[in-house]
Amino acid sequence: MSTSSPDLSSLRAAFAGRLLTDPADTAPFLTDWRKRWTGRARAVAQPDTTEDVASVVRWCAQHRVPVVPQGGNTGMVGGSVPDDSGRALVLSLARMKRIRAVDPINNTLTADAGCILTEVQQAAQQADRLFPLSLAAEGSCTIGGNLATNAGGVGVLRFGNARDLCLGVEVVTADGQVWNGLRGLRKDNTGYDLRDLFIGSEGTLGVITAATLKLYPQPAARMTALAAVASPHAALRLLELAQRRLAATLTGFEMMSRLCGELVARHVPSAAVPLAAANPYCVLLESSDPHSEANAAQTFERLLEEAFEAGIITDAAVAASIAQSRAFWALRENIPLAQATEGDNIKHDISVPISAIGDFVERTNAMLEQTFPGIRMVVFGHLGDGNLHYNVNAPEGAGGARFMADEPAINAIVYDAVAQAGGSISAEHGLGQLKVAENQHYKSAIELSLMARLKATFDPLGIMNPGKVMPVT
Ligand code: FAD
Ligand code: 2HG
Ligand code: ZN
User: How far apart, in whole angstroms, are the C-alpha atoms of residue 308 and residue 253?
Assistant: First the structure.
């Protein structure tokens, strides 16, 4: 790839005021949410339309300039920021915010990639529909970023991940052509599924500029409860019972370890809930009932009584109001912020078969505690999907830098255990730049070879978000 500096003047002329080069203006685009990676860039381009995106990508292809697509910059694995070579151009989709169409009969909504997730949820609500993708970053992440990472979140148990919620995409390819694949079809077997290749590709195959999304009916009532359990094994027994009793109305099942509750109490006291800091593990359950509040409350309370009587849960609190329900969710949603405020941390966004989670946590906790005495496990996440944020913080009072030096050894223990359980080293956050090498280690040769061939086919010049997902060759 060229190291000389191509002239930006044609882009600057086309993007009057929307091509940032001043370091004070570009800085927010160059560091990720975790503040773990800071890169440099030639410029940050801010397109308004799909044709703008295409013209930037064509310019980048012509001059062999790497393109780093960026949405809300809330990713956890460093995918949205450039490396420190200063050669890349950051392509921020943040100004592309049009809701293009809502079709309540087809139950679809088509939105520009830069729409914030909450804006999409609100547009669906205005049409008396639900767009069920939901995650704590929803006030700043974009639908393009959600699709590019195939985000999960707290509704996957019932509605699936971003891929399951997307019927069509519009994409600017690596050579700057526009593919309009905005089909609102539930059935379309006309060959290879290009949409599904772009979803989850983290900006390494093309730029998603718009998407057609699936909508659902709004529920009549929602119930939320926090239940205390002794262990992840007990949480799994609760999951099995809840799925039996609530069937498809069970829409959320999140688990958190005691330290999560303690860290929220310490760093985000307004979101603290005493139950979470007083028990080894807590589960946040949510049901969404299509019929009525009375029906929802009755089924939910019966479930918790039965769980008590069976000795599965030791304590529980059912939210008596919308405000209390929000408070329970605030506890859960503030764990990442509380963990970041506590200090240097190592994240493992892992999945294993749901049935294997109890043993996985017990065995891996024991191995880590034995090898790194005092290490603190901050374990939480989407238990109903078999996906845990099996995160760790340094021992209380220990220096962060020394702890981070142990990251490769800590990762090896965790990921070997994940591999042994038949799991994945990235359940929902993607690979970004964080897990490229580890993916090469844990994936089979044939998978890696097919991935490399796809990358070369879609992006022969290697300009699309280089160094993310795949190693630079
Ligand atoms: P960015 O961070 O800007 O980009 C992410 C990746 O997508 C990068 O590789 C980027 O190059 C690429 N990209 C962005 N936009 C485009 C585009 N239009 N076309 C092509 N490529 C693009 N994630 C979950 O899955 N589940 C959670 O529950 C969850 N909770 C979170 C909670 C918090 C507090 C935070 C900070 C993050 C959380 N995340 C979660 C991670 C993050 O929010 C998601 O990965 C989200 O989908 C990223 O969207 P974004 O717009 O911020 O993308
Ligand atoms: C969540 O579920 C996010 O809250 C973030 O996926 C997880 O901070 C993390 O590790
Ligand atoms: Zn998560």
Answer: 17
Q: Which of 35, 73, 76 to mutate for ligand 1's pocket (most ligand atoms within 8 Å of CB)?
A: 76
Q: What is the pLDDT of residue 473?
A: 83
Question: Which pLDDT score, from 0 to 100, does residue 338 have?
Answer: 97
Atom of ligand 1 minimally distant from the CA of 203 = 21
Does the C-beta of 79 come closer than 6 Å to ligand 1? Answer: yes
**Mean pLDDT in residue range 3-30:** 90
Q: By the 8 A CB rule, do 131 and 107 touch?
A: no
Between the alpha carbon of residue 51 and those of residues 67, 89, 176, the distances in Å are: 16, 17, 9
**Ligand 2 contact via 74 beta carbon (within 6 Å):** no
Cα–Cα distance for residue pair 42/271, rounded to 1 Å: 40
**Cα-to-centroid distance, 427 and ligand 3 (Å):** 9
Mean pLDDT, rounded, for 199-209: 98
DSSP 183-242: ---S---SSS-HHHHHTTSTTSSEEEEEEEEE-EEPPSEEEEEEEEESSHHHHHHHHHHH
Phi, psi values for residue 316, rounded to 5°: -160, 155
Q: Is the pLDDT of residue 1 over 60?
A: no
For the stretch 417-436, pLDDT in tens is 999 999 999 999 999 999 99
Phi, psi of 326 (to 5 degrees): -60, -35
DSSP string across 297-308: HHHHHHHHHHHH
All structural domains of the chain, each given as residue ranges with its CATH number in brackets, are: 8-92 (3.30.43.10), 99-217 (3.30.465.10), 221-336 (3.30.70.2190), 343-427+435-439 (3.30.70.2740)
pLDDT over 60 (residue 164): yes
Residue 219: pLDDT over 70: yes
Q: Find out whether the beta carbon of 152 lies less than 6 Å from any atom of ligand 1.
A: yes
pTM of the predicted protein model = 0.97
- Would you call 353 helix, strand, or coil by DSSP? coil
Number of H helices, E strands in the chain: 18, 19
**Is 76's C-beta closer than 6 angstroms to any atom of ligand 1?**
yes
By alpha-carbon position, which residue is closest to atom 10 of ligand 1? 80
- The pair phi, psi for residue 168, each rounded to 5°, is -160, 155
421: three-class secondary structure by DSSP: coil
136 lines ligand 2 (CB under 6 A): yes
pLDDT at 16 over 90: no
Q: Which amino acid is residue 99, in one-letter code?
A: I
